[in-house]
TrEMBL record:
Protein name: Transport permease protein
UniProt main location, coarse: membrane
Organism of this sequence: Asanoa ishikariensis
PROSITE patterns: ABC_TM2
Residue ranges of domain ABC transmembrane type-2 in the record: 23-260
Record's keyword terms, sorted: Antibiotic resistance, Cell membrane, Membrane, Transmembrane, Transmembrane helix, Transport
TM spans (from-to): 24-47, 59-81, 102-127, 139-163, 170-189, 239-259
A biological process from GO: response to antibiotic
Similarity-based family: Belongs to the ABC-2 integral membrane protein family.
GO cellular component terms given for this protein: ATP-binding cassette (ABC) transporter complex
Signal peptide per UniProt: none
Amino acid sequence: MTTLSLGSARAGVELRQFWRERDAVVFTFALPVVLLTLLGSLFSGVYPGSPVTSAQYLVPSMIAAGVASTTFVNLGIGIATDRDDGTLKRLRGLPTPPLAYLIGKILLVAVVTAAEVLMLLLIGVLLFDLPLPSSLSRWLTFGWVFVLGVVACSLLGVACSALARSARSAAAVMNLPYVVLSFLSGIYYTPVGALPDWVIRIGSVFPLKWMAQGFRSAFLPDSILPQEVVRSWEHGRTALVLAAWCIGGLVLCLTMFRWRGRQTN
């Protein structure tokens, strides 16, 4: 069997384990949905020169946050837990490529993330009248931003899982940078163009800001561009930054990933 087929088989195991943990399933899907519903209900008003409401502006950003949460945070916690309870050590002793395990984990979060995005889109359409992309090109934009975002955040989650000393500390280790970057990337702030310059500069370094901007370009009309940092969706720069983080995340995985906990080293 090839590494890819072994990884696909591992993804099936991971998915079955995920759906059996009902509390993890509920928390994974409920958190972004609750945040979107609450924040969208608090925001009101229409932007000058555009039919876009504040709640509609928030939905694509929350989709980006949901992607990052499911991939970066959950993947990092999951791998730290597998390392702490000896799962990684046992898998290391099997005659299967180590890459198969990582492929299985990434396929797991890709499937879960797709389901979560569908839920957030449903909330956006039903509660906030978010218009769906009106052309094939906008759907394609949504597609490539989603794929690059999932890959980049997944690889970063795999790499950063090494920072957790144990399963107990993994949630704090993974959630802290996620929450900080969410604020720096303007996820919970509308419009993004009104953020302080220093916040915009820092947020522009990381993939979450570009994922949110890419999703907004797929769902919102061009009339909202005056509310952005620049009056352009910057698709070329978005693709470049996300692709760079995919490569950087892979390099970090190769240098940081550990099969054993620090206590056993």
